[in-house]
Write a structure and sequence with these properties.
Strand content: 35-45%
Helix content: under 10%
Order of helices and strands: EEEEEEEEEEEE
Largest sheet: 7 strands, antiparallel
Number of strands: 12
Number of helices: 0
Distance between the termini: 9 Å
Structural class: mainly beta
Low-confidence stretches: 7-22, 187-197, 204-209
Mean pLDDT: 83
Radius of gyration: 16 Å
Length: 209
Amino acid sequence: MKKAILGLAVAAALATPVVASANGIIVLDFEGIGNLQPVGNFYAGLGIDFSTATLAIIDSDAGGDGNIANEPSPDTVMFFLGTNEVILNVAAGFTTGFSFFYSSYTDASVRIWDDVNGGGNLLASLPLRGQYNENCVGDPTGFYCNWTAEGVLFNGVAKSVDFVGEPDRVAFDDITFGTNRPGEVPEPASLALLGLGLAGLGMARRRRG
């Protein structure tokens, strides 16, 4: 049987965004969103929004429903349900690079576009392979325990990113704008965005058996 990432039902309330920004780099770590809450416009203050099927999930060890372990930043990651594609829009645009950590049961992909909603010209594409349980150490309670860093540098101004994969079988963390190295935050400086101055359903926790 395939192993999923998610938990149960989706809660409604949104919290205050928590991001790190420095030297043209912004990191979205999804902390503070809440278990199985939509990411949606959580980062609207940065001009970033996610399509409706994009959810956050908290590690079951931290009280959530996530079938995850060894996640790059404390307890919360991003995943999606009910569709094989979700989109991140940055209407003002961003430049230079894009990166993230991922854990996936099956092959997936990430594509960067120069218009919103996955439109316009393709600026970069990253194929992702299934690697969710390879060489895992430490935290033993989550099946999605291998987090691989991926990133790319590109020319032009990007305005959207689409994440493609099997729903409830791929998760992302530390989505990073402005560099091809995820989670990298140097000394404080300017903001990178232009114009700004896994649950019971699928990735839910399941016992090995």
